[in-house]
Amino acid sequence: MLEGGAPTDVVANPLRQGLAEERVPEPAAMVIFGASGDLAHRKLLPALYSLTRDRLLPARFAIIGFARRAMTDEAFRDELRAACAEHARRRPLDNDLWAAFAANIFYQQGSYDDPASFAALKTRLEGIERTLGLPGNRVFYLATPPSSFAAVIRGLGHANLAPPPPPPEAARPVPPPPFARVIIEKPFGTDLTTARALNRDIHATLNERQIYRIDHYLGKETVQNLLVFRFANGIFEPVWNNHFVDHVQITGAESIGVEARGGYFEQAGSLRDMVQNHLLQVVSLFAMEPPIAFDPDAVRDEKLKVLKALRHIPESDFDRQVVRAQYAPGSIAGRMVRGYRDEPNVSPDSTTETFVALKVFIDSWRWAGVPFYLRSGKRLPKRVTEIAVYFKEAPHLLFGRRGESIRPNVLSIRIQPDEGIALNFGSKLPGPSMEIAPVSMEFRYGSSFGVEPPEAYERLLLDCLLGDGTLFTRADEVEASWAWVSRLHQRWADDTAAGRGSLATYAAGTWGPAAADRLMAADGRAWRMP
Ligand code: NDP
Ligand code: BG6
């Protein structure tokens, strides 16, 4: 029974039908490093609970939390219950289900820099596996500060907790040996050099096939739907190119500020925090060529080509193609909010950008000459992530003066919230004359499927358990996106050193600085109001 007495309902999710999770993961243990942290509480455990409730996890499954502070299993379970009650998609909690779920949650205290902690973890893990009859399949989730990623993986290696799988060409033992996979949180490095170094460190212990680098945008239903939209429908692909597309706008807007993450954000800024990963992943899925198969390497090979084809912004065009800005005090939804420099753990003279707008080209046959305008910012008027594809105008307009009201066709793909897709086109107004008005055809996930899309982390955790890396980023993808982004950072650093370049400001609650509008206006275009 549910808390509050409502009946238990385990509903098949139509959004999941036909997807990989028709396979059931093998019994396994998941070790979460950083289990007492914010991400584990707000995202990971709620996602695992929702998966349990949707019967998508194996019947035999254990969770072992690992962190520094001392805690009993019971205290850890109590903490997680409160977190799941607040954050799980499937709420209110089902008491019976929670009891069964929590019985297989354990806590192990330790430190990432202490080999004895990994030896103790191994002993504990093996004991739990024996008791629960688990075959030794393991997923290690690194929800730790990024500075600890390499140390944790070294610790796993020294304790022989994550042995690499046999090479694909080797004879397959029957039954297959247990798997050991490692999920790594973001940020993966802070620039090209650090990302390469981290890949090197990780590869000293793990095989690339064991590594699952998280970009939670890839777990969003609507981001995955880009693949279905493009490659399961015959009518869009023929117009998905520079013959028909005038330009593309991608917006990742948030109304929240940096909240409690000022210390992290000071070192990151919007370009690292949102563009290097989430927005460039969206660009790569949007722009890639059809893969030869829906398998991890085929999809990621094509995405990689897009990232490698991003044109480096020439020195001479830098100021016309790149805008960075920081939010000043302002008002959002009628509430006054402080400026970035007044946020906790932010320097009063910080030059970290909380907004970035870019004009980007992809040097490929398909996209030659098509500008991609990207923008992302915090403290914008609302939370919305959207791709808007502007198509070219009809080559010859027949309607004289009445044609002046014709707008370009825009296909908008709403990633969140109000997930859906809309196509705008001109239609004749009812009446005796040929008056034309813009109208829209819309698809909405909520009304079409009657369910909310699952949380991104649900999908990603499940895919890792299933051994499907399609929605995780590969080493070469991460390095390619850093190679592009690091040049922008380098230019900003050079500007700062030379006393050049300016950081614009925008009032919180507005759509960014005037410079972002000028970037578009210079091309005779304007940002779409999402
Ligand atoms: P927190 O600071 O909230 O949690 C960090 C966790 O790591 C705590 O459990 C802490 O344990 C543990 N820890 C830190 N140092 C050690 C150590 N030396 N030995 C053992 N345990 C240690 O971080 P978040 O949960 O916010 O972030 C975790 C990761 O997820 C980061 O990589 C972050 O970039 C990423 N991420 C987080 C997001 C979020 O919304 N929070 C969003 C996107 C990515 P203890 O508390 O016991 O000290
Ligand atoms: C995270 C960033 O990766 O993505 C955050 O670190 C940002 O700063 C978040 O708020 C946005 O995610 P979503 O799913 O809310 O769009």
What is this structure, in a nutshell?
This protein is of the alpha/beta class. The protein contains 14 helices and 17 strands.
Describe it:
It contains 14 helices and 17 strands. It has 530 residues and is α/β, with parallel strands linked by helices. The model is unreliable at 1-21 (pLDDT under 50). NADPH dihydro-nicotinamide-adenine-dinucleotide phosphate (NDP) is lined by residues 34-40, 67-69, 111-113, 143-146, 148, 185-187.
Task: Note the topology.
Elements: E1 28-33, H1 38-53, E2 61-67, H2 73-87, H3 95-103, E3 105-109, H4 115-132, E4 138-142, H5 149-158, E5 180-184, H6 192-203, E6 211-213, H7 221-231, E7 245-253, H8 262-287, H9 296-308, H10 318-321, E8 322-328, E9 330-332, E10 335-337, E11 355-360, E12 372-377, E13 384-391, E14 410-416, E15 420-428, E16 436-444, H11 445-449, H12 456-466, H13 475-497, E17 504-507, H14 514-521
Parallel strand pairs: 1-2, 1-4, 2-3, 4-5, 5-6, 7-12, 8-17
Antiparallel strand pairs: 7-13, 8-11, 9-10, 11-12, 13-14, 14-15, 15-16
The protein binds NADPH dihydro-nicotinamide-adenine-dinucleotide phosphate and 6-O-phosphono-beta-D-glucopyranose (BG6).
NADPH dihydro-nicotinamide-adenine-dinucleotide phosphate is lined by residues 34-40, 67-69, 111-113, 143-146, 148, 185-187.
